[in-house]
Amino acid sequence: MNSMQILIVDYGSQYTLVIGRTLRELGVRSIILPPRSVDKWLENNNPKAVILSGSNFSVHNEGAPEIPESLDTTGAKYLILGICYGMQLLAHKKGGVVERPLANREYGPAEVSLDITHPLFNNVSGKTQVWASHGDTVSKLPDGFTSIATSGGISAMTDKENRVMGIQFHPEVVDTKEGKKILQNFLNMGGCVKDWNPTDLIKEIQEEVLNDINKKTKDEKKQNVVLGVSGGVDSTTLASILAPILRERLICVAIDTGGLRAGELEELKINAKSAGVKNLIVVEAGDEFIKNVGTTIDGEDKRAKFRDVYKRIFEEQIAKYEAGFIVQGTLATDIIESGKAGQSAMIKTHHNVGLAWEVEDLHPFRNLFKYEVRELARVMNLPKEVYERNPFPGPGLFLRVVGTPVSKEKIELVRQADKTVSDIVKKYNVAKDISQLIVALLGVNSVGVKGDERVYGHSLVVRAVQTVDFMTAKGYYFSEEMVNEITNALTKHKDIVRVFFDVTPKPPATTEFE
Ligand code: XMP
Fold first, then answer.
1. Within the chain, which residues score under 50 in pLDDT?
2. Whose C-alpha lies nearest to ligand 1, atom 17?
3. Burial class of residue 484, CB neighbours in 10 A (0-12, 13-18, 19+)
4. Is the pTM value of this prediction over 0.90?
């Protein structure tokens, strides 16, 4: 592996991995490490630049994460940029003052005035729209530092040599209009060169997996590798990358959880074939999932129960095929939102993240985002249906029966409703504008009138979102014509009385309802 030019110290912000992704979009790779792992890494590595991420901590909190001991913050060894908490931590440690003022707290869009003579803001507008999310503010700069941006308070700072800098807002978030330019300027200041391309990454992933396997066991039989496949872009792409190197040793396992969408199992088989998979095992487990997940209506509880059954089935398959490894297409986003990255807060338990397997588990996509995997899929010559496919959560339609116990009948109702709406979306040719479509049954019964008779029936909700990385999302507005057509089509079902349309952005909502 090439030595990394950029180290990102992860203090737990939801956006930390987005910094890595944005740098990769600019052609530069980076490594993201929690503070506790930095000292060891720096023993053998010499980055050109270091970014200190945001955090949900205040520097004044007990247990607030620190600057790693061996990290040089003088700017002598590497260029330093603190973002949000990263800036506050630098200011605090260097003798500045960080306060929590009543005014000047910023959550969301803000306008800042920049000192465009500073190289960090080269070619950026003097007044620009940014995304900020902080309660604390640097109210007094450390000696030797000057302010280079303001929005009521100090929004950015620099030392005299322009080697140690901080910005209070988030340049990595797309809502910071010129954030990418700012990060490009930072890369230029650090003398970073482009070092990322998907073809190299595919080779690296193959080498990494082979190395991991060979390191752990020389026993040929134990080298069977189980890969969970769902037909989605992540697992299909991973299968296509691993199939040529593992051949028959790659055992792809698909579970029919009973929560798949209409036609999904057939699609899965076609996709596995196009990925070159030799061994595809389909396990029918619908009844087992319903029996377990159907006992609760609590979102997290459902996910936990789903995970238990999911794990049990994989363990049976691992034992059956005497596999020594399980490999999964877990993405950086899955890891962040299930609270497994650095010190990020847990948003949701993901069905396949953080499971303690008896065999070695490998997550070769752990630092990648969806759009990057799509790029790998294109390089692997997978069909368009794979690399353009919208995501679908592992627990599937189980997450789309909300506030009422899941049953086979309710899942079937949602399955048909999902197909109806998907067909309308296709007919209107708007699928390309939508990142994910969700049709869910709500546990809200209400009164309606059908054929002059009173009915008391279910409600459905339709939600479409637009997003780049699923860390943030915007609600998609269907045209009035589509809203009417969808509503008419769905209320044809005798038990559906009402249809809601949900355009709440993420945050505050998440993409899925649970
Ligand atoms: P949220 O709802 O957290 O979802 O905004 C972000 C993206 O992740 C998908 N998702 C999952 N995918 N297992 C998965 O494989 C899961 O447990 C899971 N939960 C959410 C979700 O559909 C969206 O694309």
1. 1
2. 350
3. exposed
4. no
